[in-house]
Amino acid sequence: MDTKDIILELRTKKGLSQEELAEKVYVTRQAVSRWEKGETTPNTEALKLLSKLFDVSINTLLGSPRQMVCHCCGMSLDDATTSKEIDGIFNEEYCKWCYTDGEFTLDFWKRYSNIGGEEKFMEFKTQLVNEFNVLNVEGMPKVENLNVLSGSFVNLEYTLPNGACVKFLDDNATYLGNQLPCEFGGTRCFGIVANMDFLLVCTYEENGANPELVIYKKR
Predict the structure, then answer these.
(1) Is residue 89, in this structure, part of any structural domain at all?
(2) What is the pLDDT of residue 119?
(3) Closest C-alpha among 113, 120, 112, 71 to residue 95
(4) Is residue 110 in a domain?
């Protein structure tokens, strides 16, 4: 849909007249009319106000011209998963789980935002990707990307040769990791996890069943 059709549809669903919408976003009724005829498009400030009023992202208002992904964890974003600032304005760079009400929620990201922000964080992710690839784990494909993951999601329990069962991660911490298919086929896949201190490679079946530790390497 074009912006003109989107604004008309959202205004109609909210039960607003053109004049009422104009009052809420501080423009004239004629400006709203021109938007809905496709003669003009809202400026940046008007788009922010429309986004907040209709509870949709600016990307949606513009007809979704770009594929949004979270700059922190890499997940695809839509209006239901996009984060918001404390004033209710959408922040279209992050998902609501990584960033909410003006604050980063994940300890890993907070740590790196304090020493250089996104650029340093991305540099560190690239460094870890390279470290995983030089391990040359048999059957594991080349690592291309790492996502920010909650420890409670990836903290599997492994059985050691002496029969003891251990977990290496902290449920309350945040790590960088990914899941990769095994190049030999079958139902098992690789799980990789890392932070500033270590690299971990394991294999497991669907839903993390029957995990086996492959490598735990201090950095």
Answers:
(1) yes
(2) 75
(3) 71
(4) no
